[in-house]
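Why run this: before we spend reagent on co-expression, it is cheaper to look at a predicted model of the complex and decide which construct boundaries make sense. The entries below are exactly what would go into the expression plan.
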Amino acid sequence: MAKRTFKVVNQSVTKLDAIPLALGKPLFVADFKPADALYAKFLWSPHAHAIIKSIDISAAEKMPGVHCVLYHGNVPRIAHTTAGQGYPEPSPYDTFMFDRKVRYVGDRVAAVAAETLEIAEAALKAIRVEYEILKPVLSIEEALQEGSPVIHDEPEARAIIPVPYEPQKNIAAKVGMDVGNVEQAIAGAAYKLDNSYYIHLAQHCPIEPHVALAHVDAEGRLVIRTSTQVPFHARRITAQVLDIPVRMVRVIKPRIGGGFGVKQEVLIEDVVGMMAWRTRRPVFLMYTREEEFVSSRTRHPERIRVRLGADPEGTLTALSMDCISNTGAYGAHALTVVCNSGSKVLPLYRSANVHFTGTAVYTNLPVGGAYRGYGATQAAFAVESAVDEFAETIGIDPLVFRMNHHIRSGETSPVFAALGEGKAGVQQSIGSCGLDKCIKLGAKAIGWKKRGDWRKKKGRYRRGIGMCCLMQGSSIPEIDMGAASLKMNEDGSFNLLMGATDLGTGSDTVLAQIAAEAIGTTSDKILVYSSDTDMTPFDVGAYASSTTYLTGNAVLDAGLKVKKQILSVAAELLEKKPSELEVRDAQVFAKDGSGSVTFQDVALHSLYAANQFQIAAISSNISHKSPPPFAAHFAEVEIDTETGLIRVVKYVAATDCGTAIHPKLAEGQVEGAVMNGICYALTEQYLFNEKGRMTNDSFLNYKIYSMRDKPEMVTILVPTYEKTGPFGAKSVSEIGINGPCPVIANAIYNAVGVRLRETPFTPEKIWRAMQQH
Amino acid sequence: MSGTKTISFTLNGAKKEFAIAPGELLVKLLRRSGLTGTKEGCDEGTCGACTVIVDGRAVMSCIMPAFLVEGRRVETIEGVGDFGKVHPIQQALADAGAVQCGYCIPGLIMSAKALLEEKPDASDEDIRTHMDGNLCRCTGYEKIWTALRNVRDANQPKQA
Ligand code: FES
Ligand code: FES
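The model came back. Tokens follow.
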């Protein structure tokens, strides 16, 4: 790889919003709440599955200070999906603003807008509801049982793209693919494995819960400020649900207090929008922490069967995975998450025979959604645990087995073409792949060589080391689109307007760096305004690890177009041909040394002097590939054999994300994802009572890690150059969360000899497994 | 408002009077008075986003009734720094790349400031323990940890 030198890219410049955020400036939705805003509040279902027999809102409506009460009887009944995805959405249309049926504890029954929160709460208590309670379906197994209650029996429920959808069987989505013949390959294999895994439900826990503020402006249009990852989808879906034209809705995204996928959902915009539309008053709604747990979105739990086969030399000949995901009460992201369980994990290892099925089932539990990792987290746990175990069966070091089988630069996998998002995938061959180096550097950092057999370990506290390999993607090829517009100002600065949605990742900064590098200036000269459906060009939003790769290329192209215009104006000023000029440090130089002009000279000339025009460009980009970032993760754990208590001593994550546009932010993505993954693997879980009610809906008893729990972390970025990415970049935001579950499971085995195939790995589970052993 | 009462306290160095409703929590009072830098993440004392400093100690303003600060000194993020006079903790976090979404950051700064003012030579263990109540879901704490230790180290008198 040729050494490339960059001026702005690959540098850790100060994140554009870091200081304003650290100063506590008003930047978030709630900070804009006007004093006269009404407070909105939901009435939630206390039952997991019930019909609303009658509902009486009259007392609530009459209460002084109450301005609006919504329920199924007074809003349009429009089937839609809350999943903020491209149109037509691959998620089924199975949701209504309010419905006659409630499908989980925490489902919407009604909502009130009132002068104060206290009045809104009192009004909710005044709503009389009579339910006919139905039998709830609380697990994947129950959902699939013959004769099980049907959760979506409403006639409107449908898929709007041609994919299997069988709500009468509680099936929200189905997908599959076959390459070669796995059955035959397994039948003839010298080594075989057939294991089932279960990976659990969890929540994203952004520190800022869902929050939105709506008002009707002086021109009669609905303006919604909302903490969303998908402003354009939020506009489209809100207009759909309110049954008003898209042009009547404006969505503005200020800073977002974390998303991780949960805000790739149009969760509350419809209700605040409808209330503002009806009352003509500003309406504010912020979820409580409890509501964020129960009535927002979660990670789809999956039951996964993995089968592997290998020939006598230990070469993988069969790779098979059957995933059943639990999408909860609604099918948000049901199809695409389970598709990604296959498409983001199976291509990692070469095998002539590959089999995959994915099924998503409805249950009366909280709703699944997009969550960082998006199906890959689930499948990586199963496959990377299985591969570890399989290597041991064969008698080969699991690191060497992975080295022998992982996909490399120049290779392809039939899975890419076979599995897409709601349709066939897109064939691609791997461009950059630094996985070998990730494995080598990671192994060295953790001390893989000192890893001993668990059978030889003694003493109460035993340590073990585990590893895994990972891949993800960068954008959804041939579906996702991002655009950017750039214009030059008098002082040689530039406005960069994008629909791309910085949800705290730093994408505004990263994209400003790309613009600055393309134009030949510094990132502080790029003024970023992102995500306002009236002002910025379209972008699908922040999901599928797409922003740097997808929107980055649009920004790069816009930057190059602007640079060309700058050169043409400079040519006029310097009386040269553009080809005789070059840009350096916000100046244009004649290559022969005869003269130079600053960007400011160019801008002033273009705006005031002669042949005036606005130096500006707009570019759009669609991706044709989804180049995977790769990673190798390693962990050392220590287990107290008397109590099962587990501690992660050290965690090493080596990641190939192509060129890291902003190394510190890239590291931050890995560290945040890994930490989230570690507490998902060890402590986070939903506890339900027999009626389907979550019983631990608070940070008091749903434990997410604090600084005190942080293990020693080593983050290694392995530079590669992805030719199709902006300045060689691929994605980095999601991949890191997929590692901790399999790595820790493998490390537990290496420490004490038990294989845990169900997450999370609580001390109790570890201890029990050790007793049976 | 029935039962409204007036309290006075020192807010970011200036003596102020506020009419408060019965049971009103400090975070609500601050935010409705335009000091929106103090964030709400749980309203039950479990996330630390609402941390402010009262008489030198970090407290969670979402569980502190406003009347309890009568006559005391309250410091919020707005009093810590501003453009042109950024506080070293704020600068260190920005420099370390520790500010992702930034929602946890004002509360976290208030906690760290209370600690480092009381104990400029806080040990690593002191920092970990003290910061236990400030949850951050974005960063994995690694860069925050680096930033806070940098501030602490910069506080130390140079060895002769
Ligand atoms: S908002 Fe006060 S601790 Fe969470
Ligand atoms: S930076 Fe987002 S929660 Fe801390």
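Residues B 40-43, 45-50, 60, 62 surround FE2/S2 (inorganic) cluster (ligand 1) (CB under 6 Å). The CA atoms of residues 52 and 139 of chain B lie 21 Å apart. Bring this page to Monday's planning discussion.
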